Amino acid sequence: MLSIFKRSTHTSERQLRKYRKVVQQINKLEPTYEAMSDEQLTNMTAVLKERIQSGEKIQTIIPDAFAVVREASKRILGMRHFDVQLIGGIVLTEGNIAEMPTGEGKTLVASLPSYVRALEGKGVHVITVNDYLAKRDYELIGQIHRFLGLTVGLNVPMMQSPEKQAAYQADITYGVGTEFGFDYLRDNMAQQIDQKVQRPYHFAIIDEVDSVLVDEAKTPLIVAGKTQADEDLHFIAARLAKRFKQGIDFDYDDETKATSLTETGIEKVEKAFGIDNLYDLEHQTLYHYMIQAVRAFVIFKRDVDYIVKEQKVELVDMFTGRIMEGRTLSDGLHQAIEAKEGLPITEENKAQAQVTIQNYFRMYPKLSGMTGTAKTQEKEFREVYGMDVIQVPTNRPRARIDSPDLVFDTIEHKYEAMAKEVAKRHQTGQPVLVGTTSILQSEKVVEYLDQHKLSYNLLNAKSVEQEVELISQAGQLGQITVATNMAGRGTDIVLGEGVEDRGGLFVLGTEKHESRRVDNQLRGRSGRQGDHGESQFFLSLEDDMFKRFAKEELEKFLKKVTTDDKGLVLNSEVSELTERTQRIVEGAHYSMREYNLKLDDVINDQREVIYSLRDRVLEREAILEQLTTMLSETVEFVVFDSCPPEDIADNWDFERIEQTMNGLLLAPVTIPRTLDKTTDILKLYEIPLADLLDYVESFADNEQVNQLIPQVMLSYIDSMWIKHLEVMTRLKEGIGLRSYGQEDPMRIYQREGLELFGRHYQKLRRNIASEVIGFMKRIMEQREALQ
Ligand code: ADP
Fold this sequence. Notes:
Rossmann fold; alpha/beta; single chain; 30 helices
């Protein structure tokens, strides 16, 4: 008992007292603003902005600002923020996460922090989970802000640059997180400064913050260019991979998803393609195709991770069960799945820019978020984003009953009991929502419902609008709805007439999700705003979760298990087994995200270097100076690289320096082979380099050169970055497998990643310098020829 008590993570009353005091202040101000005319109220925006400009802290602005927004909302929407909604608003304004169950009115809560933070004049981004909600909130909540004299923008895919720029210039901008991320990537591929659409980040409010930062964090956002795939190679690789067995032909690490071929596997590939050595450089592509083919078989399950529709592979979001429109896997993996399914092979995506959602949002100086379920992930939010999770009290006491899980011995028994329970509830008219973890499972569920002659609404991977429509019907008398856990998330289920008396909505979970958080989301669909409601999970010992993560414990448990005649497990320890297993799963997923984030951090630092260089070029910032810096650095790098001071002079490569430098310099330099100090060699280049820099300076007013340099720089920067991303992906693929000695693969990746970047970056500078200087020399020659 004590241990449970200690583990309790509830936000304490003491913490909340501080917020309640502010709420009192806001309430006290209500009569003042109620007495104001519309015009006076609108005018408050200017007054508050003024106070901020004169240095006043946001903290002390909150009472007036919130009171103003509440009054505006009363007049415009006829809704008065509840006190607990004000608390949520404060939590957000301070840059933390407000945990508020479904139905508490998070949309209205967001009107408060977005207003206050927008007063700072640097733009607020309000992030929703889909375009539908973005548009809804933009239209609904936007009315309050527009009334108060702020501008509001909507950022959705496919808009033209000028529209996007306008949306980002607005005080408050609504949109989906991925679109903001893609805009960032596209901005950093722009060829002209005026093509950029975003301005520097200031403050973001992320709705359903857990789903955005935790669930979606696994797939990075990728802007890709197309390249033709080798169809035959994909098909042969798929045919081979189909027969491959784990542990014999290939190894696969569940946690890191690292895949490698074993000696046996490699021999089979070599035989199939008639080659001697798969490790040869010339077979690198083949090796890569093989690995992707194997991954297509082991990682991706049809109707769970993807579906095949009209001869196309469509990815399924494992959390919503919804198709991720237009998203494809990159690096030939998508094509490998197509080959596995015998479909036409599409063009391959080659990453030109990529960022994870996590790293995108970490660029905001201040972040905040709302969700019904964050407390179980509190540590992660604090460590990765510096946000605390505050549980905001509900407006009305909660009246939902969460009944203990029922665990059955077999899957059949589970579904049979599920169908019987649904039928029983249905007879009384009580609406039932059956939650599943995948499309495949949804189909299983409805098979059993069919057998019991029950009619239902099945939500799987239909359009968002349809989902919203169907899920909002789920609370009507006699309705049975089958949906993946998060389908139509963010939509309220309003109870129909007479439902409250029948116990409210009954939510029946058919499998525990990989995270308790998602289970809680499912439960939270019932019992909104103090409604009656009930939730219960029906599980079986054959569920994936047990089989995958608690194999040994399960075997032990099976020896002593007792059941009734319907297969219901009677041993009381079963609840402990369930809880422990889910904790193991959560732990494994957390480590995987942590691992991926660490891997991504390596590229993240490099991206910052490249993008800031790119920005300086786009803004034509001291272009010649940048070029001269590149030249000086090139000399230094080449000299130190070819004649490292830590090596003896006998091993030095003088010729390499001469070859590289003589192309650049105005007159060739020969290095005396007797030199044995690196610094002496550097000295040798001092005067020629100074001459070269003078030469470059002499082009300062040359229009042609001024036009050309930025173009050359951009094109080299971009192609270097694309290539570098590709090499880094390959490095990452291989890294899980190489545990040289005792060295941590992460360390190898970090070290080699840094080394690769150093090389690529150096080559980039040298290429730019030599192209530009070559151009200058040609101009001079032409000029001389004319004279
Ligand atoms: P959540 O996102 O927290 O689940 P919503 O923002 O969808 O909740 O709001 C749930 C419902 O409650 C909506 O119909 C909304 O209009 C209503 N609502 C929210 N706040 C208030 C309020 N202060 N007064 C009246 N109705 C409210």
